[in-house]
Amino acid sequence: MNALRVFEVAARTGSYADAAAELGITHGAVSRHIAALERWLGQRLFAKDGRRMVATPMAKVFAAEVAHSFERVARAAAACGRPGTRRLVRVSAPTTFAMRWLIPRLDRFHARYPDMEVVVTTVSTVQEDLRGGVDIAIRRANPRAHAWPEHDIVPVLDDGDTLIMSPDLFERSPVLTLADVANHPWLASETRAGDWADWLAVAGLSPRPDHPRRVFDHFFVTQRAVEDGLGLGIGPLPLLSIDVAAGRLITPLPDIRVSRPGYVAVVPRHLGGSAGAGAFVDWLAGEGQSPHQA
Question: Domains of the chain, with CATH numbers?
Fold first, then answer.
């Protein structure tokens, strides 16, 4: 059973090192467990590809069946377990989504499901690769995306970029027309490269390479600089709706908006039927469609 568990995690994460980290064992222990399972089965489960060990096609099919079996055991244990035991839902989400949209709403989820506990881990980008150790990953993508063939994709929230600034800066030097945009420094983020170019294109303005800019490593830092009145930024809505409602930000030209792929919940197919994951995804989708965004 230990070898099967190690094998499932290694096949799911695509890395012996990631499997070791998730399971809290050494890289060597992962290798030994998989070698023992290969001897028992009489065939190789992983092949070397550069510096990585990659699961064979047969091993991927086997791993999916093993995962289904573990999930069935987990559901049976939950059904027979002690009443009142809190169920854990592990969620991975982009940092801005987690901090500005998801976490402020978790009290509503816990009020509805007091027997569930949500653990949120963040990623600095919306990269498509999924690492193990989570039940649900939230990513920005087309709902019909085929990047995750072994997962179910559930739309959660639309996304679009528009101009943002602080109320204090607007009072000192308002932005009422497109011409006013040139009166302020432009604040940008390395993690959201191209936001200004895309917004200017939608606005019908030509790029200005010589215009004063300040670039920060992450949008969260850029947002803080915008709130402090250091310049104009391009920000995502409705992710920032809570900040707009609180009066920390305003959207001076809201009709000029760049459409972006929305956020989706990516759920491993073998977990789709679990009560915890299912309840959380249903709640996410409902929050994303709800008229109250704060």
Answer: 2-80 (1.10.10.10), 87-157+261-289 (3.40.190.10), 160-260 (3.40.190.10)
